[in-house]
Each structure stands twice: as C-alpha cells, then as structure tokens.
Amino acid sequence: MRSWPLSAQDVTQLADLYAQCGVPILAIKLLNRAVDDRIILRDVQLHLLLSKLQFDARNERAGLGQLKKALDAGEENTLNYVSEYYQFLNPEDPTTLLNCDQHLPILGQVLKFGLSNEDDAWFLIGMCRYADADATPPPKTNCIHRMSDEEFSTIEPHPYVQKTRSASYAFDQVASNSPLSESAIKWSTFVDRNVRALRNRCRDRHGLPLCYQVIKQAYHAEVFTGEFSLEDRCQPYLKGFDEKHRAGE
Known about the structure:
Blueprint: H1 8-20, H2 24-36, H3 44-56, H4 60-71, H5 76-87, H6 94-97, H7 100-113, H8 118-134, H9 149-153, H10 159-172, H11 181-200, H12 204-225, H13 238-245
Helix pairs in contact: 1-2, 2-3, 3-4, 4-7, 7-8, 8-10, 8-11, 10-11
C-alpha cells in the first residue's frame, strides 16, 4: 500500500474541489485510488458521490452502476437521491433509453421501497419496455384476413406481444392526476395499436378482392379440368363467394 499524504477527509474535500472546478473525472480517479489504497471505505455515501461525479462527467452508465450499488443498501437517503435524479430525467429522450438495461432494475427496486414520484418511474419503465418491444421482431403471420380470436391466441405468447403488453401496463400505472398522465395515455394507446395491428394486418378489404378473383378463376378452370382447386389462403372466402355469386346454381 502506498503512503498517502492526505487523510480520508482531505481526499473527499479535494475530490469535491475537482468537481467544483469542472473536472469530475479527476475526482473519480482520486477516489478510486484512495479506495484501492484503503484510505476511504467503499460505502453508500461513496457510491452516491461517485454516481453524481459520473453523471457530471456525462458517463451515465457508470453513474447508474454506482447508483444501483448504493441502492442495494436500501438506505432512505439513497431513495431520496434516486427520486431527485429521476425527477429531472427526460424519459422520452433517446439518450435516456440507451441505458434501459440499467434503469429497469433500479426503478423496479425503488418501487418496492416506495417513491414520491412513482409516476415518473412507471412512465420511464413503460418507455424502456416499449423500446425493448420495438427492437423485437414481431411474429410472422401468413393470413390475408383478419385473425380470429383462436388464430391470435397462437401468437399471444410471442415475446413481441408480451413485451408490448408489458409496456402498456406500465403506462397505465401513471396516475390520472399526474402531469405525465396525458403522455402516458397517448403512449398506452399507441402501444396497444401495435398489438391490434397484428390482428388487422391483413384485413378483409385487402384480401377479399384478390381471393374472389382467384375463386372465380378456379371455377372457370373446373369446366376444363373437371376438378376444383383453390389456394389454401383463399379458402376462408369460398363460402362468402358462393353465397354471393353462386346461390342460384
């Protein structure tokens, strides 16, 4: 262990001075060296200080990592610090969503303890969950008609559907009297539409004209071949075509 001319209090004061002078990176290096040489302890207060310094240095991932370590101790002052941090964080900022893998475990843990601004937490959770869903390829569907409930149930377990529903649930947890309520409702509606779009991807109005033409050609071909042959994708429209165009035959 190297000999230090500074006490633990001196190290903390010098780190604070570095931060005030706009060079948080030097404060971080100083504190980490002091920890390695056992001049100061790696406790909750140090994690909070390092978290603030990392945020000041625009290294959000490292700051969130320190915040998570401080939060693991479950001390009340840590929760207050976290609450203040998320109060000033813009949940719709794309740079915020780059660190969702860090935000989600922190917010999940904080909600267990209780947070004065739970709406901020739930809104960011919704944004992060939707970002995750949006990066997940949706299930492939081969239908050309609107899915029935039975057909849709086959894709319900798909990760895209589950993640999208999870995001919608988070937005729905934002209180109606919250300043974020209007945005949460808009996002929840938008997210729900993505799931409904899977069912409506091939609506009747798109498949109907095409299949009616295919069915008509199949009946014409039957005259020459003696056999009626129809593509599987158009089978759902055969009964409707017959009722409409061949009822008198």
